[in-house]
Amino acid sequence: MQYPVVKAFFDENSNTFSYVVHDPETKHCAIIDSVLDYDAASASTSTQQADKIITYIDSKALTVEWILETHVHADHLTASQYLKSKLGGIIAMSEKIAIVQDTFSAIYHIDIKYFNTHQVFDYLFQDNENFSIGNLKAYNIPTPGHTPACLSYVIGDAVFIGDTLFMPDYGTARCDFPKGSADTLFESVQKLYQLPEQTRVFLCHDYKPEGRDEYIYQTDIGSQKRSNIHLNAKTQKQDFVQMRQARDKTLSMPKLILPVIQMNMNAGHFPEPESNGIRYLKLPLNYFNQS
Fold this sequence. Notes:
Layout (H helix, E strand, L loop, with lengths): L4 E7 L4 E7 L5 E5 L4 E3 L4 E3 L1 H12 L3 E6 L11 H8 L2 E5 L2 H12 L4 H5 L5 E3 L4 E4 L2 E7 L8 E5 L2 E3 L21 H11 L7 E3 L15 E3 H7 L9 H12 L8 H8 L22 H4 L1
Parallel strand pairs: 3-6, 6-7, 7-8, 12-13
Antiparallel strand pairs: 1-2, 2-3, 4-5, 9-10, 10-11, 11-12, 13-14
Helix pairs in contact: 5-7
């Protein structure tokens, strides 16, 4: 078994954990689920969170091989393009991103031919594809349900699961985004539960539920199987789907989903400036409360 070195970075504004995962032998690394700071009131970006990652990588003299996304995030902007410009690396995610691009291109009235002919990610993983980080062996597990393009990355004794599961005391990800499915999420979690129980599990988010005083980013497969409050080893699919669908009906849309998803499905590229030199994000007015 290989044991990668994992460093977590937390953005409290979006409750997001980003990671640098490196091979202690070669010092090659991957960055997972990076955050570009975004102030919604002024529609402005900054790089404080990403710069923390750069400082860490420089201090450890690491070489970036991969900049990985577990899915198209709805709660923060990805810093992938900024990090690539500073550190290099291949920006990658699931080939199922095409489903997300097709769905949201219709909502934002973007010409889908752009994505079909000019794929914006450097690399798209096929399901269950093997790859490496230095001498570390890695592969992905397709874990759709939250979105159709969700991947979990198994790297040595660790798995990075995106929004599939949260800490056992908080449960599972919502499944009410376009093309999401509670039924599919149940099946995805079963694949994760086939990993060895001692597998380290690194989360994309934590929301510190009532009664817990600190944010936590790491658990293990055994703990999830024993005690996840939404979906443990004893949970029946019908019960989970019923619970998840009922719970999702009570949830508000993520505050940043409309501005950020159009950039995140574009691999973090900013929109092209218009004739006045200003870049614009689009908002589908009243679209979601009609549907």
